[in-house]
Write a structure and sequence with these properties.
This protein is 33% helix and 13% strand. The chain is of the alpha/beta class and 543 residues long. Helix 17 runs antiparallel to helix 18.
Length: 543
């Protein structure tokens, strides 16, 4: 494994993407071509969906379009793959991680056992997600993508794929995917992200509702103060934050700014909204001035942690875990890590649903995208240099996608009993060593559809399921999720960094609320209008 700048930063995610150069690339197809833009071709080539029915969930999420939930891992998990997928030759992988870098191979028993199960030695170039754009650009420029690579969000991605990646259409389209049954179990909508110019160029890393953001709370801390994980208006939320803040004990209600949560109170669109044949950015919504007034009050009152706008993403998680800040905004997929890093057994996690700001009913969260987002395009591809091994490499990705209830899933997520996990009430629970050694970025190579399974604490699987069941069905959908805009890739990171800076300045009182209108106007003229145009064309073509 190679390690590239493991110190996480808050730099713009896509800094350095412009360093990529592709010889002979034209501009054809720019401005909205790509995933999902050719419905006729897409319907012909999209893989056949075959749902895995090997295990019945304790709580079925299909009706609510959320993941299934399980309270117990099957006592006798099935072996889903009859023979090792590898061919004995090294498999080189380029991907990222959002967790601490794991021990090296010679000090990592899980990695050694994984190599044995795969049947090929794995060489994983693992980079912190905030640095992946630069790493990917360097790998492309140096022709060092490895056998399998997570596709970075870069300009002219269609041309890059045509130049560097294997066309997987003959192997995965229609019923051809049946050779890889666990890839066939991936949600149909997730494959849209992999289709460019009528060809399948990768395997999606699906997420969907589990990547929706929600406001977590430390239920145990609220309970001790006689408070409920419920607010019915913006004023209620302000009062909850007041009650949870005690500066004498160095406690601040909010680990970071709850910007999305407050936007959810006003039903501000999820990134984009449709307006006839065009799309409009959420930045242009008229409620932003009211949103900022609430956020400014929270900051001025000292209800946000003093470091809410500095440090790293991990710092926010630590504040929540150690109780310094009992409220934090994060994705539903973060629930397992909060349990795994809990300091005390008394820690309890709950979700505070957003209300409408005026108390007239529930607010609406933003539904997570079908696949993982920046700094990637949401899928892994296979290098053209490795085309002779394409079936082996697809078999490896199929192995990584083995679903919940199988022996392969159990090992991939929890390692070996007695070493990486202990069995508590019939369920595997990662040990400290297990948590450290298993962080190989496997879920950013290929993964099964997300399952709610939280063995660390009895009742948490049902708690997360019920929270998602309550707030995800009416969630606002991003109408252009998975669609491609070349301008967004080229200019979006800097435009986003600029607008985020103004957002933070307004919240912290360094700029007036009136500065927002000028910032949005600058965003639009600097490339935002062009992004909207390209995404509008892509949306129209996808129907």
């Amino acid at each position: 494994m190679t390690i590239d700048n493991p110190r996480l930063t808050r730099r713009t995610l896509l800094a350095g993407a412009g360093a990529i150069g592709l010889a002979g690339c034209s501009n054809s197809g720019r401005g909205g071509t790509g995933a999902g833009t050719d419905p006729a071709s897409q319907s012909k080539i999209k893989p056949t969906y075959i749902r895995y029915a090997g295990v019945k969930p304790d709580l079925s999420g299909a009706e609510y379009k959320i993941p299934d939930a399980f309270n117990r891992y099957p006592a006798n998990p099935v072996k889903a793959i009859s023979q090792a997928p590898g061919d004995g030759k090294p498999i080189n992988v380029l991907t990222f991680t959002n967790t601490p870098i794991p021990p090296k191979l010679d000090q990592n028993r899980f990695w050694q056992q994984l190599n044995q199960q795969v049947g090929s030695p794995l060489s994983i170039s693992l980079t912190p997600s905030v640095d992946y754009a630069q790493k990917f650009a360097t790998a492309v420029a140096g022709d060092q993508l490895g056998d399998i690579f997570l596709v970075g969000a870069v300009p002219q991605v269609a041309q890059l794929l045509a130049s560097k990646a294997v066309d997987l259409t003959p192997h995965l389209s229609g019923d051809n995917i049946k050779k890889y049954p666990h890839l066939a179990n991936l949600p149909e909508v997730a494959w849209n992200a992999t289709i460019f110019g009528g060809k399948i160029y990768g395997v999606p890393i699906s997420r969907g509702a589990i990547s929706s953001q929600a406001l977590y709370c430390r239920g145990d801390i609220l309970e001790k103060q006689g408070l409920k994980a419920e607010v019915k208006s913006a004023d209620d939320f302000m009062e909850l934050c007041k009650q949870l803040t005690d500066k004498r004990q160095n406690r601040f209600a909010l680990a970071a700014s709850p910007t999305v949560f407050v936007r959810n109170m006003f039903e501000i669109p999820n990134n984009w909204s449709e307006n006839g044949n065009t799309v409009v950015s959420y930045l242009e919504h008229e409620a932003h001035e009211e949103v900022f007034e609430i956020l400014r009050k929270l900051w001025a009152a000292g209800y946000m942690h003093p470091d809410a706008f500095s440090g790293q993403n991990q710092d926010m998680k630590v504040r929540f875990t150690n109780g310094t800040s009992p409220l934090v905004q994060d994705t539903f997929s973060a629930w397992p890590s909060y349990l795994q890093t809990a300091i005390t057994k008394e820690s309890q996690i709950a979700i505070v649903a957003p209300p409408k700001h005026d108390g007239s009913g529930p607010g609406r969260i933003w539904l997570g995208a079908p696949v993982i987002g920046a700094p990637s395009m949401g899928f892994t591809a296979i290098s053209k240099k490795s085309e002779a091994r394409v079936e082996t490499l697809l078999a490896y990705l199929n192995f990584l996608a083995a679903p919940f209830g199988t022996q392969e899933y159990l090992f991939r997520k929890f390692g070996s009993p007695g070493i990486h996990h202990t069995v508590v009430n019939g369920n595997p629970v990662l040990t400290e060593r297990g948590f450290s050694e298993t962080q190989l970025g496997l879920l950013y190579q290929a993964d099964a559809p997300w399952t709610i399974f939280l063995p660390e604490r009895e009742g948490n699987s049902e708690a997360e399921f019920n929270a998602m069941k309550q707030i995800c069905p009416p969630a606002l959908v991003d109408p252009v999720a998975g669609l491609y805009s070349d301008t967004n890739i080229r200019k979006g990171p800097q435009l986003t960094a600029d607008i985020n800076q103004v957002t933070n300045d307004i919240i912290q009182g360094r700029k007036p609320v009136s500065a927002w209108a000028a910032a949005v106007k600058k965003w639009k003229s600097g490339g935002g209008d062009k992004i909207a145009e390209e995404l509008g064309h892509a949306l129209a073509a996808s129907r």
